Automatic annotation (TrEMBL):
Biological source species: Glaciihabitans tibetensis
InterPro entries the record matches: LysR_HTH_N (IPR000847), LysR_subst-bd (IPR005119), WH-like_DNA-bd_sf (IPR036388), WH_DNA-bd_sf (IPR036390)
GO MF: DNA binding; DNA-binding transcription factor activity
Coiled coil: none
Name under which the protein is recorded: DNA-binding transcriptional LysR family regulator
Amino acid sequence: MDFRQLEVFRAIAEELHFGRAAQKLFMAQPSVTQALQKLEADVGARLVHRTSRSVQLTPAGTVFLSEIERVFAAADRAVTLARQAAHGRVGALRIATNYPASRLLLLPLLEDLRRRDTGITTMLRELGSPEQLRALLRGDLDLGLVYGPVDEPGLGSAYLLSVPVVAIVRAGHPLAATEVLSFSDIPRYPYLTGFAAASSVIETAIVAAAAEHGVHLTAASGTTDLASYQLELETTDSIGFSSEQRGEQSRANGMHLLRLGPVEPQLEIHVAWNLQQSEPSVNTVIERLIELAESNRVHG
C-alpha cells in the first residue's frame, strides 16, 4: 500500500466516477482501476462497488475513507511544520470554525495575530460543530469555534458570544415581502429546521423559542447536506433557518431573510479545545478570542 493508492481511492470516493477521478489525478483510467485493485488486495476487502451505471463505496470503503482522511491531514500538517521549521517557526495551530464564528471572530483573530507579530501560524478549516468536536477528541484539531454549550468529556470550552437565528425563503415565496416572521405563521408553510448532517443547535433553539410562545413546531430535518438543503429552499415554498451570518450570505445569493419574532432565538458560540492538548500557543489564542468576543458584544 502506498500514498498514491490512497489518493486514487479518495478521488474515486469524492467523484464516484472513475473517469473524473482519473482526470482529477492526471492519470489514465486503467491506471486508476489498477491502483484501486491493488489497494483492495492489500486491504483485503472490497472498497468500491462499481456497476455500468454507478460507483458507490462499500461499508468497508466508507470506514476506510474516514480513516485515511487522518493520514492526509497528518501529511499536510507534516509539510506545513517542516516548512515552518525551515524558516525558524514551528507550531501551527489547527483551528476549525463554523460559519458565523469565521466572520465574527476568526477573521479579526488572524488580523490581530498578524498585527501583534506573535509568530503563531494557523491551519484553518470550516467544519460543522459535530465534526469539529469529533476532530478535537481525536487530536486532529487544536481549537474549534462551535455552537454550544459543549458537554463532551475530555474537552474544555468557553462562551464567546451569541448570534440570532433567522428564517430564509426564496425570492418568490409568499413571505418574501415580510420582514419579521412570527412563530405562529411558520406552521402555515412547509419548513425545514435543519439537515441531517448539521448540528441540532439551530433546530433546538427554534423549537424551544416557538414553544415559549405557544407554537408547537416539530423537528424537520429532511435533507442530508447543506447543498441539498439550500436547493430545496431555492425551489420550494419551504422556510429554512440559519444563523444571521449564513442568512446574509443566502441573501447575497438572491434569497430573502426574515427576522423571527417576537423574540429571536439565540445561538451560543464557544471556543473548544482538547484538555490533553500541548500546543503552548493555544491558551494565548483562547485569551485573544475571549477579548475579541467581549469587544464584539460591547460594540456589536
